[in-house]
Structure formats: C-alpha cells, structure tokens
Design a protein that fits this description.
Elements: E1 2-8, H1 13-17, H2 31-44, E2 51-54, H3 58-68, E3 75-77, H4 94-97, H5 101-108, H6 123-141, E4 146-151, H7 153-164, E5 181-186, E6 191-198, H8 210-217
Parallel strand pairs: 1-4, 2-3, 2-4
Antiparallel strand pairs: 1-5, 5-6
C-alpha cells in the first residue's frame, strides 16, 4: 500500500486579500501561513515519510521545507502539481472574477473551463497532469512507501476527486483549506481517501503495521472508491 499525504500550502497575502495568485512569482507565506506550516509539520513529525514532492512555487516550497524539518530528505520539485495556469485571470481579485461569464462554468462545469490568454490552461489539463504526477510518484514509492505532496487547492481537489471516483465537474464540492492534510492510500485494486481537508485529527493511525498492510492489500475495508482519469 502506497500512502500519499496531500498538503496545501499555508496562507499567503493573496489568499488573505482574495487575489488569484496563480503562477505569479514572489507569492510567499504570510505570518499566519508560516505558523500554519509549523503546526501542520508538527502533525506529520512522527510519520515515516520517505519523500517530499512539491510544486515549484515559493509558497509550496516554503511549506515543504517546514515538513522536512530535521529529516534527511530532499524536496523533489514537480511542475505537474504546480498551480493551474489561470492566464489573464492571474493577479485579479476573486470578487471581480465572479462577475465574468466564465466564472459560472468554472463553478458548475469545470471540465469545460479554459482560462483566457496565451498562458491560460484548462482545468481538465491541470487535472490530467496532476494525476499523472501522482501515478509517477506512487511508482517511485511503491509498494509500501509514504510520501508527501505539497500543492495548491484546485490541484489537490482534482487529485482527491479522482481518488473518490467522482467526475471532475464535481470537484468544486471538495474543500481544501490552507495547510490542510488529505490522505489517500493506494491498494492494488483501488484508492481509499482516509482524510480530506483535515486540520486537526490524530494522524498516528497512518503509521503502518503488519496488520494494516495486510488488511489494505486484501481490501478488507468497508468503503473506498474506484479511481479514474479526470
């Protein structure tokens, strides 16, 4: 069983002010975000993390560095889990964007949303690259590794939705807060979303035991959903 721990970066001034930061350089954690990252890292401190993968943006790298702590681990940067490329929407206030005709599509049918401008990306393409990244890193840490992936709200929502077996058009129903933790356990037959948008529960049950490995490998668990490409 491979365990993926998804972490959203801590709060930034753009989050605080309702600005769509996207790939804007220089967007870093504010004081609240730095404290969120420290608190979240403390929750992960006792887990046998074998690797840390991060979006290359500053706010995610800062968050990943907090998780590393005194672990002898390098951070692998993967642009496939970088923020969605919002094109001409980048840097604009959300309250202003909410008046754009495209906003309704983003909220109700995100699989059809393509952000405007030469740098704009579709949400579907973002989801495809993010899921491809998960598949790649799962293979690196298989069969029983545990690793952390530090990314962004929409990217994590797409990954979680895929694990739950839901259509990308429903991914806006998933809430992912700054520095929240979502955990997906991958077995040979299907993934299990065991935590989503978790900001406070005890994560000690993620420490593998012989019994837990045997149970998950045999899928002797109630619940879980079949993954599919988003």
């Amino acid at each position: 069983m491979t365990t993926l721990i998804l972490v959203r970066h801590g709060r930034t001034a753009a989050n605080r002010d309702g600005i769509l930061a996207g790939w804007t350089p220089g967007v870093v954690l504010d004081e609240v975000g730095e404290q969120q990252a420290k608190t979240m890292a403390a929750r992960l401190a006792g887990l046998p993390i074998a690797g840390i993968v991060s979006s290359p943006l500053e706010r995610t790298v800062q968050t990943a560095e907090a998780i590393v702590g005194d672990r002898d681990l390098d951070i692998a940067l993967d642009p496939r889990i970088g923020e969605c490329r919002y094109g001409d929407w980048t840097g604009r206030p959300l309250k202003e964007l909410a008046k754009e005709p495209l906003w309704k599509t983003v909220q109700s049918q995100p699989s059809a949303a393509v952000f405007p401008g030469a740098e704009g990306e579709s949400i579907q393409d973002m989801a495809h690259r993010a899921i491809a990244s998960v598949q790649h890193w799962n293979a690196q840490f298989a069969p029983d590794g545990m690793y952390v992936m530090v990314s962004h709200g929409d990217v994590i929502k797409a990954i979680v939705s895929n694990a739950l077996g839901t259509h990308l058009d429903l991914f806006q129903r998933v809430q992912i807060d700054p520095c929240s933790i979502s955990v997906i356990e991958f077995t040979p037959s299907r993934p299990f979303a065991v935590h989503v948008n978790d900001s406070g529960s005890d994560l000690g049950r993620l420490i593998p035991t012989k019994r837990s490995r045997r149970g998950r490998r045999g899928d002797a668990v109630v619940g879980g959903g079949a993954g599919h490409g988003a």
